[in-house]
Amino acid sequence: MVKRKKRYIIVKASTEIPLEVFKKLIEKSYLELFGEFGLNEANLRVVKKINNKFILECSQNSTSKAILSISSIRKLDDSMICLRVVKIAGTIKRVREIIAER
Amino acid sequence: MGRKYIDFWINLTDELDLSEMISEIKELGFKSVVVSSVDENRLEEFKKLSESFKIEVYRKLILEPENRLTLLKNLRAYRGEYEVISVICSNLEIALTAARDSRVDSLILPPNKRFRIDKGVAALISNSVELPFKWLIDETSRREFIRVANEIVNYLSKKTSIIVSSGASKPFELRSPHELASLLQVLGLDRSSALDAVSIIPRKIIEANLVKLSSSYVARGVLKIG
Prior knowledge:
The complex is a heterodimer of chains A (about 100) and B (about 230).
Chain A: E1 6-13, H1 19-42, E2 45-50, E3 53-59, H2 63-71, E4 75-76, E5 79-80, E6 83-89, H3 92-101
Helix pairs in contact in A: 1-2
Chain B: E1 5-12, H1 18-28, E2 30-37, H2 40-52, E3 56-63, H3 68-78, E4 84-88, H4 92-100, E5 106-108, H5 119-124, E6 128-132, H6 134-137, H7 142-156, E7 162-165, H8 177-186, H9 191-196, H10 200-213, E8 217-219, E9 222-223
Parallel strand pairs in B: 1-2, 2-3, 3-4, 4-5, 5-6, 6-7
Antiparallel strand pairs in B: 8-9
């Protein structure tokens, strides 16, 4: 079996939100833009939450789609929210380094 | 040397906090911004603020004419005053006129446009086409915007240059260069071409217009030296 390459996207939220809420928000946005097949292909997984930063794992081929889904989010229920892509890394080790640097 | 990113359209409204906006622009990694505003004083205030953040600010005029004559009249009146002029093409007549006029820098095709971009229209377009990201963020215009963006990339990407701007009028509507470029990547362009849409292409337009606006410019291809 061929091993699928992954990418880790560090996302910063403008307000404090729980991990589960973030996951639902991303999945909803991705589903709206790219459908069930796209979502399945992307293999989205929220790895960790550090303060208001989230580490989102996705397949390498779906990175730009994941970024677009993140940046098209504007609302959480009735309040405004802004999610910013901080950095993209290929390994979880590099992600830890980036977060430590910041 | 890394890319110098430009946000080709930021809209300054009255209720906007200018210092918050400029610090957000800096944080996102932009070196230059092109700003449209109805209030000249606010624009000057924004320019002064941006100097301390080392961000270049250029002025942009957005035209949304009803017919061809109004468009030509406005272009004659304002071309010498603004670094960038963009035209929102709400109908085919405006689109065809703006597409062929060298005084227009970019065409903006709104999501609610009442015409289709087919090969005939595409053949006439020689100016750049701009995609404001704010229409993707807005849920009411998202579907139509994606359709328009898809048409633009399919028919025009090989023929003319495409620019992605934020069109932001609030700090949370701003997006980073990579986020803006991801729109074109998703629509089928490679990473490098997508990043050109937020760096090299808008910079070339601005540089060409700065030369035209300078006192040494005489005519196309002729400059006063000394």
